[in-house]
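>> received
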Amino acid sequence: MTSSVPQAPALLSRAGLRDVARRAGVSTATVSRVLNGSAAVRDDKRRAVQRACDELGYVLNAAARTLSSRRSMTIGAVVPTLATETFSRPLAAFQQTVHKAGYTLLVASFGFDEQVELKEVQTLLEHGVDALMVVGRTHDPKMWQLIERKRIPCVQAWTQDQERPSVGFDNVAVSRRMVEHLLDLGHRRFAMLVNEPHFNDRVGDRVIGTRARLAEAGLEIPAHWFMETTLSLEHGIAAMQHLMRGPERPSAVICANDLLAFGALLAARTLGVRVPEDVSVVGFNDFDYARHLSPPLTTTRVELEEIGANAGAYLLEALAGKPPKGPIEVTTELVVRGSSGPAPGFYG
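>> returned
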C-alpha cells in the first residue's frame, strides 16, 4: 500500500514578473510599466496586471528596483514631533506632493533631541532614501557629513538659510511685528513663554526678534518673566499660573506657540485673570482652534501647507537635476483677535 503526501502549494510570494505577465496575458514590459506607475498603458491591460498581481500575491521587489533604477523611490522627513499641527499639517502636504511623483514618504521624529535626530537621519540614509527634509538650521555637523557622503538632496524647512536650501520664513521679523502690535496697545511689561529654545532655532529666532524690538523701545523681559518650558498644554498652564501668582504681573504674555498660548488662556480663566483686560496673550502659528478659543487668540498665521508643498517640490526638482534655488519664503500674517487689547490704564 502506498501513500501520497499532499504537495504544499507554491508560495505566492515567489511569483515573478514573467508569471504575472503570463497570467495577465501581456508582455513583461507592460507589467513593468504598470508597476512603475506609467500612464502609457491601456486601462484594460492595467486592470489585468493588477488582478494577476492580486491572484499571485506578487509584490514588487523594492531592492531589485533600486538596483535597476538607482532610486528607492522613497523620501525621508525628520521632524521634532508629530503631536502638533506645526508639523503634521506640513507633512501631509509634503506627502501629497511627493506621492504624485511616485515617491513614498518615510517619517521619523526626534523629540527636540539633537542626537536622536542624528540617529534617525542615519537610519533613513541606510534605508536608501533618495532625498531628505529636515527642520531648521541647527543640526549636529555629523548629520551634514552623512548627507553629503550620500550625495542626496536635502532641504531645511520652517526656516530661512542663506547657506543651504530652505523653505520657511524669517522668525525674527515676524516676532518683531507681534511686539510692535503690543507696543501700539501701550504694553510695557512683557513676559514670554518659550519651548525648547536651545535646539530649536525657530523659537530662538523668535526670542531674538522679540528682545531686539523691545530693546529699541527701551524695554526688556525680566529674567523671572522669561519662562522656558516643554511644548504641551499642561506646561503652558503651569507657566502662566507661575506668572500670574507673582507679586507683579506682566501686561502682555508672548507665547512662542499657540499650544502654550492655549494653556495660558486656560490658566488665566482658572485664576480669574481677565484676557485681555488684565493681560494680553498672543501665540504663534494660528492653529485651527485658535479662532475658536475664548477669547479668540491673536497669533501669527503661518501657511503650514505651503511649507510642506514647497519643500516637496524643491526635492523633486533637485532629483530631476534642476539647479538649486535660494531660500523659498512662505506666507505669514499677523492675525489680531480678542486675546490682545490695550494695556491696563492705556487709552491710546
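>> The chain is about 45% helix and 15% strand.
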